[in-house]
């Protein structure tokens, strides 16, 4: 009988200015073989250096830290480690912070009141390419996005029928693998469709497209 192939643990970088909170999160996550903490930082500047050097699969980022503004840290992290999934983990439950974080390239938004099991699931989903938003914040996705953050309607009209369908699945936080399964397509074909959607909508990430679709209530795929 062939040996089972065990996937490597998901590498995680913690960026938070509270040492006690970092220690608690690290202790909770290290109980699980699915994840490994590869680094931690107490501010945005050192977090960016760590991300550039470590290239973790997932970055847990606090927004409210001294020094560099959280949103600026997020945008720079997207540049230095573009393949990392960035999960915001914060005390802020403001709709504006949620909207700005997602539009700036975060793949999800969590509040610090979540339990450890939810955090672990969120990390695994983010590593798989899914959009993760805390249940307490999901309803706030319908808030109006900042001026200039959404594409013009004529750009939406440039999408093909298949691309509109893909956008609908993005709005549900589906990964490329799940979309491929649901639509009977090759995963690489879905990847190309997603790239085309982002290019036509003039957006930098699938999360931005998902937030736009949810916020406008357009092209939403009914539950399967």
Key phrases:
6-stranded parallel β-sheet; single chain; 6 strands; Rossmann fold; globular; disordered C terminus; alpha/beta; 224 residues; 11 helices; Arc Repressor Mutant, subunit A; 2 domains
Structure description:
This protein has 11 helices and 6 strands. With 224 residues, the chain is α/β, with parallel strands linked by helices. The protein has a 6-stranded parallel beta sheet with strand order 2-1-3-4-5-6, with helices on both faces. Helix 5 (116-127) links the parallel strand 5 and strand 6 (132-133). The chain is globular and about 50 Å long. The N and C termini lie far apart (36 Å).
According to CATH, what is the topology of the largest domain?
Rossmann fold
Number of domains: 2
Q: Mind telling me the CATH superfamily name of the largest domain?
A: Response regulator
Radius of gyration: 18 Å
């Amino acid at each position: 009988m062939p040996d089972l192939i065990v996937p490597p643990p998901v590498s995680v970088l913690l960026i938070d200015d509270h040492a006690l909170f970092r220690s608690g999160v690290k202790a909770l996550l290290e109980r699980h073989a699915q994840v490994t903490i590869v680094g931690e930082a107490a501010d945005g500047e050192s977090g960016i250096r760590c991300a550039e050097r470590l290239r973790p699969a997932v970055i847990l980022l606090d927004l409210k830290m001294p020094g560099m503004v959280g949103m600026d840290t997020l945008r720079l992290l997207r540049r230095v480690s573009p393949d990392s999934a960035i999960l915001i983990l914060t005390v802020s439950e403001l709709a504006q912070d949620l909207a700005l974080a997602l539009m700036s390239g975060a793949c999800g938004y969590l509040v610090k009141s979540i339990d450890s099991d939810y955090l672990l699931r969120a990390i695994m989903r983010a590593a798989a390419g899914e959009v993760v938003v805390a249940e307490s914040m999901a309803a706030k996705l319908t808030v109006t996005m900042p001026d200039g953050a959404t594409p013009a309607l004529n750009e939406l009209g440039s999408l093909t029928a298949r691309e509109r369908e893909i956008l609908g699945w993005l709005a549900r936080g589906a990964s490329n693998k799940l979309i491929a399964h649901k639509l009977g397509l090759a995963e690489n074909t879905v990847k190309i469709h997603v790239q085309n959607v982002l290019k036509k909508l003039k957006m930098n990430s699938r999360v931005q497209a998902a937030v736009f679709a949810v916020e406008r209530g357009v092209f939403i795929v009914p539950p399967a």
